[in-house]
Amino acid sequence: MAFLADLIAARQPENFSLHEAHLNTQMVRLLRAIGYDRRYVRAHGPYLFDEAGDRYLDLLSGWGVFALGRNHPTVIGALRDVLDLQLPDLVQLDVSVLSGLLAERLLRHTPGDISKLFFCNSGAEAVEAAIKFSRSTTKRGKIVHCDHSFHGLTMGALSLTGERIFQDGFGPLIPDCNAVPFNDLSALDAALRGRDVAAFIVEPIQGKGVNIPDDDYLPEAARLCRRYGTLFVADEIQTGMGRTGKFFAVEHWGVEPDMVLIAKALSGGFVPVGAVAMRKPVMDAVFNRIDRAVVHGSTFSKNNMAMAAGLAALEVIESEHLVEHAASLGGELIAELGAMVERYEFLKTVRGKGLMIALEFGSPRSFGLKAAWGALELANKGLFSQMISIPLFKDHRILTQVAGHGLNVIKLLPPLVINQEDKAQIVSAFDAVIADCHRVPGAVWDLGKTLAGHALKARAA
Asked: Which residues are catalytic?
């Protein structure tokens, strides 16, 4: 402990220079350009603390990993127990009790007749497994996904990701991965009716933009999959584990998938862990003989630290009633933010379920505001959302994210442990920042001019 504490204390001021020299230089440049170059030294629950002692409310939560907040004592205790017990780990020619216990407990929450589980290390690995398992089960090659989806950045998952910016420069992608518009049943029917599609992989609520389907979309999509012999795979990597006010988002629509993909919050925020929950016929189709018992796997999957973190995460979610809390507090937050739509021309809609929330901005009615909006959009589509997120961070110490490239959507993905005081801070901060954007000219629009200048220079380069 002293070794690591001393090392961090001595080298903490070098975090940006170390990354600039040895890791992603462009990430350092980006953080400095937008004023996010803070040195965080401590974290607790939904809060980050920098070296000056300032507290930040984290509504990004590590892309949804920290659903329990950071450094939850229950998870820390479970990990310490594993280390103290000195259990055998990753024997490989063995099966561990912790992985069995985590599978048993996690499967209590899965919808329908899902009864089998495959563990891996991440959401992307879960997607890769789903591609292989669906092809093995159906003996078909094609995979269908949705436009504007995000399923990961490994090659198979990237092939199902409907955002071109992530794909550019990495082709050719794997073949027979075809996109259909989200929330379009006719397009899905046309894609499946050839009876050659192994799986339809869909986010119940799309992470890029927080796009929520019509109430009949997912139930009818599942019906079409059954009709044409296609497996219905719900990517709940971000929406699962209570995020939307249900343990799994498909529960909002009563859908029973063939496979459910799980990761992020299952880690408890410490040790990476992912999982594919599936109906028994899918598992049996893949591991169908003794000599195929190891036909798919992952070296570090089912390691004791990951399994303990998963068990602790479930304990916290259940004992602290975080699913119910996400539903109630999220509903209040959506309503209070939504009440601003009538007051502010730039704010077009607030949508979400539970604590997965989006604020979408658009062109205003007033001539002066419309001209300012148009100038930003001409420089770079989606730039207005940066005029919201940057002041939220600098002036109100709230960390948010833009919901996708080219989108004027701010996405909130806070830890499920935020409280009424946090909610009040969120509403007050958005109220202040959005109000400032309606003052043209003004300080926020000076920021807009700076951002537009950077965008135009980047385009020219």
From this structure: 150, 235, 264
